Amino acid sequence: MAGGQVRNFTLTAAPTNLTLGPGVTTQGWAFNGTVPGPELRVRQGDLVRVTFRNQLPQPSTIHWHGIPVPNGEDGVAGVTQDATPSGGTATYAFVVAVPGTYWYHPHQHSAEQEDKGLYGALIVDPVTPGAATATDTTIVVDEWAIGPMLTAPPPGDGMDMMAYGIDTVNGHTGSAVPPLRLAAGQTARVRVVNAGFLTHNVHVHGTAVRILATDGHDVADGAPIQAPVPVAAGERVDLGFTVPSGSWSLDWHDGTSAARQITIPLTTAGTGGATDASWNGDAAAVDLSTYSAAAPPSTAATATVSATLHLNEGSSGMSGGGMSGMSMGGSQFSINGKSFPDTAPVLVHRGDTVELTFVNDGKLVHPMHLHGHAFEPVVLNGHPWRALMLKDVIGVAPHATVTVRFVADNPGVWMIHCHELHHAAGGMDTLLQYAGSPRLATLTGDTTPE
Q1: Secondary structure element (H or E) that encloses residue 138, with its range
Q2: Would you call the peptide bond into 36 cis, given omega within 30 degrees of 0 as the criterion?
Q3: Beta strand residue intervals within 332-392, DSSP E
Q4: How many other C-beta atoms can be found within 10 angstroms of the C-beta atom of residue 140?
Q5: Which residues form the Plastocyanin-like domain (predicted)?
C-alpha cells in the first residue's frame, strides 16, 4: 500500500527473571526483557522490519499471528524457515495491509517457549481512522504453571491444565494488576489478546459493551451486551464501551480459581475502582455465532475446495509421531486419525474458495488456527453462523462441527493447527498447500513447527 513508512524494530529473546505479583516470581523467557514484549504499533501500509536476536538456549522463530504476510515471513520452523539458532539473528520484513489487533510469538517448540513468556501485541492502526476513542488499551491474557515440580509445561489438557494456577494480564497478577484510569463519559476500546492455552471469558462490569472486532477484523453494528465475551487461545476480541461513573471492573469468568486473581479496576474520577459485587464465575458467555452484526463482504456462496478435518485425542497407539513423540505424557492429538507430519495436506489453487469443516470427535476444546488467511465462520452444528465475521482462530467445542470459508489468495505452504499448543505439539497440525508453491523448509534436526 502506497504511503506507508518503514518501521524498524529489534526483538531480543532471552532468559529473564520475572515478578508476576507479590511473592510470585519465575525464571521466564521474554522479548526485550518484558512480558508481554514491546507492543509494536504501526499504521496500515507500513513496511515492518524486525531484527530478531536469539539469546535463548535453543533455536527459535517469530510468527506474526493473524497478519497475512508473505509465506517466507511467517516464522514457522520446518515449514517456512529454518529456526534461528541460539546466538543467531534473523530479519523479518512485511507490509501490514490489514488494520487490527494481532500478536507475535515463537513457532519453534512453541508450547514451551510461548509458555515462558515469549509474546507481544502487534497493533495496526487504519489509514482512515474510525470513530474516535479516548482510550485505546491492549491487555494480553496468559496462564502460568509455577512451582518446583513444574519446570516445563504440563502435558495435554484437562486435569493437567489444573497445574496452571496463576493467571496474568500484561504480565501481572493479583494486586499487581494496575488499574485502567478513565474519565466518565469517555469512549474506550480494550483489545484483548489471549496468549494462553485456555478460553477466558472477559467481562466488563458496570456497563454494556460492543464487540468491535474479532481477530483484528471489524464487526459492524454489534449489539450492546452485558454478558462475558469468550476469547479462545490465540484469539483477539476488541471491546468498546462508554465509561460510566462509579466503581467497576474488568475480570475473567472461566470457571477456574485462578480467574479470581484477575480483576482490573477501571477507575473513574473520584472513585476507587472496586470489584463489582455481581462477580459470578459461572456467568454464561455470549454466543458469538448469534451476535447481531452486519456482515462483511461474503467470500462466496459456493466452495470449489472442501475438506473435513476430524479432531481427536488418543493414546500412544495412534499413528504418526507428533512433534514431541511421547513427550506429552502419553497423549497424542490427531487430524483425520493421523498426527503431524503424517497428516494429509489440504491442496488448493490460487483463487479457490475453500471450506474447511472441523469436526471435534474428542473431549477437549480445540481452537483451530489458519495461518496466512482470514476466514468467515459459516455453519455451526448444522445451523448458519448468523453473525458474519472474519477470524483466524475458531474454538471447536467437544462434539461440535464448525465450517469456515475463505478465498485462497496468499500462495504458499501454511499451517492449520490447534492453538492449545500442547495439542499442536502432540500432532494436531496439517498444512494448507498451494499448487506450485514450494515448502521453504523441512523438518530436520531441532526444527519443529510446534
Answers
A1: strand 135-144
A2: yes
A3: 332-335, 346-348, 353-360, 366-370, 376-380, 383-384
A4: 23
A5: 16-126, 332-428
* 113: DSSP letter: H
Q: Which pLDDT belongs to residue 125? A: 95
CA 187 to each of CA 183, 210, 294: distance values in angstroms, whole numbers, following the listed order: 9, 11, 21
Residue 4 backbone phi and psi in degrees, to 5: -80, 165
In the structure grid, which three cell numbers stand for residue 411, read together?
Answer: 500462495
**pTM, whole model, 2 decimals?**
0.92
C-alpha cell at 349: 489453487
* Whether residue 297 has a cis bond before it, omega within 30° of 0: no
Domains of the chain: 6-125 (2.60.40.420), 135-286 (2.60.40.420), 305-434 (2.60.40.420)
Q: Which amino acid is at 199?
A: T
Q: Which residue's entry shows cell 461440535?
A: 400
pLDDT-based confidence at 267, cuts 50/70/90? low
3-state secondary structure of 288: helix
Q: Is the Cα dihedral 438, 439, 442, 447 positive or negative?
A: positive
Report residue 299's pLDDT band, with 50, 70 and 90 as the boundaries: low
Distance of alpha carbon 229 from the chain centroid: 15
Cell (9 digits) for 51: 531484527
More confident residue, 270 or 63: 63
Q: What is the DSSP letter of 34?
A: B
pLDDT, tens digit, for every residue of 336-394? 999 999 999 999 999 999 999 999 999 999 999 999 999 999 999 999 998 889 999 99
Using alpha carbons only, how large is the chain's radius of gyration in Å?
21
The reported pLDDT for the residue numbered 158 is 47
The residue behind cell 504418526 is: 320
**Helix ranges (DSSP H) in 71-164:** 110-113
Amino acid at site 151: T
Q: Which amino acid is at 373?
A: H
How many CA atoms does the CB half-sphere of 103 hold within 13 Å?
A: 31
Half-sphere exposure in the Cβ direction for 424 (13 Å, CA): 28
Query: Which of the given ranges, 99-113, 260-274, 302-316, has the highest pLDDT on average?
Result: 99-113
| DSSP symbol at 350 | T
